[in-house]
Amino acid sequence: xxxxxxxxxxxxxxxxxLRDKRTDSPTFRRLAEELMTLLAYEATRxxxxxxxxxxxxxxxxxxxxxxxxxxxxxxxxxxGLGMLEGMVRLLPSAEVGFLGMQRNEVTLEAVTYxxxxxxxxxxxxxxxxxxxxxxxxSMSDAIHFLIDRxxxxxxxxCLLAAPEGxxxxxxxxxxxxxxVKVVTGAVDERLNEKGYIxxxxxxxxxxxxxxxx
Length: 213
Prior knowledge:
Shape: globular
Number of strands: 14
Helix content: 25-40%
């Protein structure tokens, strides 16, 4: 598993305001969307392309276009929805699927409650969106879910990650032969006793939508 921390001043700048507890939900949503677009640029660096013949106003030339089948973007509900617009802005021709996963606050294990994905993902590049790679449970389950359907190239995009989440994900994927890459804005210090990233930014879903379950 490859982990890429997108080290850029604009990413650090936006993360600072996302972390600030004084940032209200509308501002948080806007910043998360902007940050996602920056991360999407890094995450799609190896997106599959093929030659494409065109005519410019001057001459004929060969460019590139996205290969078929098109990439699939999968936000993990609900917090991953806050990253979707920033991703498809950069990758508008991608298809979008949805995967609903919720963390049990007692066991910290992920439970799947919704699936709107193609049954066969053979040959698909998949980009999984979840703001926080904390314990790694939800992301691990999501990636295994996609692998079981034939996905063979998976990139997880997160605003923040914890060392524990990265370690859990790496361990859980050790027995698979599918290349997985994690792209994140930062790797924070640790998890606290409640499974939240420290210093983190709190509950991303609640801060995105201004609601508490």
